[in-house]
Amino acid sequence: MTTLIIAEKNKAAEAIAKALGSVKIIKKAKMLNIYLVASKDIYVVPLRGHILEYRNTDVYKSWTNTNPREIITNPNAIEKVPANYAYPYINSLKEYSKISDHCIIGTDADIEGCAIGLFDALPFVKHVNPSIKISQLWLSSLQENEILRKFNNLISPKYNWGESGEARAIIDALIGFSATREVTNTLRPLLNKFRVRFTSIGRVQTSLLYLIYIREQEILNFIPEPYFLIDADLFHVSGTFRVHHQLNPFLKDSEVMAGEIFQKIKNEKIGKIIDNSKNVTRRAPPIPLNTSKALVLLTKNLKISAIMAMQIMNALYLNKLISYPRTDSDVYKSDFNHNEILQKFTLHSQFKNYTINLLDNNRIKPTYGKKDMGDHPPITPLESLELNSSRFENNLQKKVYDILARHYLALFGEEALESKQFLKILIKEEPFHAQFVTLISPGFLEIAPFLKPKYDTVIQIISNDIPIKEILFVQNETKPPPRYNDTSLLKIMEKNHLGTKSTRPVIIKLLQTRSLTKRLKHHYFITDLGKFIIENLIEIWLPFLKPEFTRRVEEKLEEIKNNKKKMNDVVDEVRNEFLQLFDKFLVNKHKLTSKINTYKMDYTIPLTTSNCPFCNTFPMKFIDSKNKRFLVCSNENCKQYLSLPKNGKLELLDCVCSICNFNVFKVILRKSNKSLTYYLCPKCWNDSFKENSGKGFCSNCEEYRIFKGRCIKK
After folding, report:
1. Which of 276, 503, 570, 673 is most buried by its number of CB atoms within 10 A?
2. Does pLDDT of 603 surpass 70?
3. What pTM did the predictor assign?
4. At residue 222, what are phi and psi to the nearest 5 degrees?
5. Angle formed by the axes of helices 547-561 and 567-588, to 10°?
6. Is the CB of residue 313 less than 8 Å from the CB of residue 302?
């Protein structure tokens, strides 16, 4: 019996084939290899993610001659068609389906993978071979033993999971296509000022932009409130420590009282300890990592973007180093073989002593999380690799693997023991207090120091009468909430049910790509364009902006996955609900158009994430007007500038030049309806004017090149 296995990516297809037997490669196209396992008569065909995508039909391709509302009301306004790279994959699916008796869907084992396998690929298989048997290969890793075990225990296709993914694609297409077109057409004069061809509207991304805007307004409208602190620095055996007045902070209406207390005690030299109690507390090891927790952990500790963290985990999975990185579960099944993995780490130069100690003490049961979603185990290292291993493709993969491996080993560790010391002190009858937490025994923190809080030094006191070094009276102001970073954005998206564990990093990146936000020094700022859009949509389209709408959509999609609702019913429900929202926009959009002509642009926009190369203290601003375009230092005492190319759309990359450490820019030009792209370091480019060398154009650089948005050595 001939079998066809469909994989989502080439690396996955290769791993599946090699696990099943000796492999022969059949070259079908430049980017397409078919893997033949002749001994078992199996053909493994890789895809390239989605091979089909939703687009507007020909009748609705014009943005100016069609009514965007009809994209919602007319089911024939959108269609699913092959992506421009898809035809070699489609032809191979048809070719090998004709000669196969059994088709195994081996795409990624999640909702998106089910949609790709069952709704993109399978229709081509069934078209040429309607009677073919269909099964699904549900993999949690690309390890050989996992592939063999699951190949011998195939499951029935998870059609309801695929329907959930397909419903999401249809809903996002009809909402995104119609709203993007209507809002873009409405804002066309303003977008021209911003040199933007269109603005992107979507149920998840626009709600996220709304939340970023709300935080920006909280910061801008924040009015600092003064408050006062009375502290005291006291001597102990090996140094000094600080205690705080029991009534801290004194608010503005308590300023007089605070001043009177300070005047009363400011010259005191001895304090009296009335309580010096200690107790031992236990800090429990962490719980296993699902995707959301892993993204939060990596973005927080490595200061990388969410999309980068997800891409690195996916690369480690495809290289067979970790289990499947898209999982909702933070609970291991009782039969998961932890002993096998722990044994591998007993040979690791850094981890062996810790791991041997775990095994010697029979600590082979991990901590227990909250959710077993039945999809995959938590994210788990599958190999014990030294950080100098050639299996890592770059330094970032090493860092991500190191954190994931250490976190996994920490699940089996002993609790950390902490000492909490509570001090109560009277200074001329005024009550002061302090609390100090010190580490007694590190336990699991030995292997996972990134989970360690900041501990205090031990305070040693030998007498109840304690000498005072200084009494402090400090005036301060309340601070606004911080801007979102990748970690806090992921948390706020999860809290508001915006997107999924897999799509959240993509949505965060999309707002940057559409020039609606900028990521500066790990924090997200809304751009003037994003601010204008949200500021004005709030007046006329608030129900669409608020997360409640997209939360209801996510709940309906989950009901499809759990086989509680049918795909078409959910699509129709959302279609009707969004149509009401869309009509509300149409009724009120005149309020938006009336503001466009009066809008004045601020041409001075902070742009660079690296500091000015001249003073090295402040970022540079982007000056863009009809007659000039350059970067100028935002430090008024510096005022140095760097010239920029006059033509082309400039996009700031999230990387720096490896030569001068200044930001690299992507420049996009349009000539003869074609888009041309090149990369430029403004610092090197300006330096080259003196010698006319052409430096600064990254394509001319002899040592480095731009690869996947990073400046790397050739």
Report:
1. 570
2. no
3. 0.80
4. -70, 130
5. 170
6. no
